[in-house]
């Protein structure tokens, strides 16, 4: 499907628009002053449409600079209110805007986007069958649907290979942008780079920055194995250092699993033994010098007082388990997981969060065990099936990343937060690049020869 206008039609439209603007400026100057901000915005939209790489860069900056958190800081609401909702809305709308721009310019992707369909079907089921009115309002359900499908939006669009490569490489740079800007922000006194417990947060919070680091390491490893360029090894090392500085345990566990699987299952064609030895031996001394202090810093939170700290998960998970027992098969409707916990509960107020920090529990409340299983099966089918015809390197990295993401989902919010948008945008971009690089099927080659 391609709905791009011809160059002649674009020139006629531009000439007509310029003529209309000139007449308005001469005949109705007061209206021109009112329309000027809208025209500037329209010009920006047209520029982003014309230069999709610039749009990708803008998207990477939105997430790298923590726009949702910074909007809240700028309006001094301290973590809540309309500005926080505005910031959350902006970071969820950006992938839809990029998707729309790519579809208008290059067309609609014909490959089935299973996770997007799964969430849409669950939303339809919530409207038709489940007791939405008694649990969650229609507005909240729609917001939850937008937030749930935003990570998978770009899987609906077509684009050239360079756009997908820019998205993958941009994902690897998000934590670096946040860290550098956060350090600068700390110098000028705008936003502290460390939270109240001394954990590094850049322009985000430690858990969010750690979530972006997980995706960044996936992307850096993919780009490194595709050409063994030193710069991507260095980027991945910086991302790992930032992850350690956040002292986030679940993201680090996901990364350790990912790297272990890549080392274990890579063959001589994907990750030659010589490269592994060079990586270990050549990276040992600088790694110990650079990452050693970070490891010791991170271990302070891991060891604690000798007892494992669940960070409140052991307190909040029983609320969700009780709700699942009440409606185990189909749940309470999309978005209900946000309302299961009473925010005025003294224990919840002490924790400071009503989030499940477990996507399997949250989605089982929303969609029941059946719906939760359908969503994760859709994600597995989308990524695992999408790499069937991929070159060995892409297949290895993406499938190992999928396993790590599934583990991470058991301990963090990985499908609804802004970190999810970047993670599954990375998967969508990598899968799209895989399809473009895959060899043509044999029947098409025979047809072309004939």
Plain-language structure description:
The protein is mainly α. It has one domain (51-303, 326-437). It has 19 helices and no strands. The longest helix has 31 residues, at 273-303.
**Mean pLDDT over all positions:** 82
List the domain count as a whole number.
1
Summed up, the helix count is 19
Approximately what portion of the residues adopt beta-strand conformation?
A: under 5%
The biggest beta sheet reads: none
N→C terminal distance:
26 Å
Class per helix and strand makeup: mainly alpha
What is the number of E strands? 0
Fold topology:
Elements: H1 7-27, H2 29-50, H3 52-64, H4 67-74, H5 81-106, H6 114-128, H7 132-135, H8 138-149, H9 161-188, H10 206-227, H11 230-246, H12 249-265, H13 273-303, H14 313-326, H15 346-351, H16 359-386, H17 392-408, H18 418-437, H19 442-449
Helix pairs in contact: 1-2, 2-3, 3-5, 3-9, 4-5, 6-8, 6-16, 9-10, 9-11, 9-18, 10-11, 10-12, 10-17, 10-18, 11-13, 12-17, 14-16, 16-17
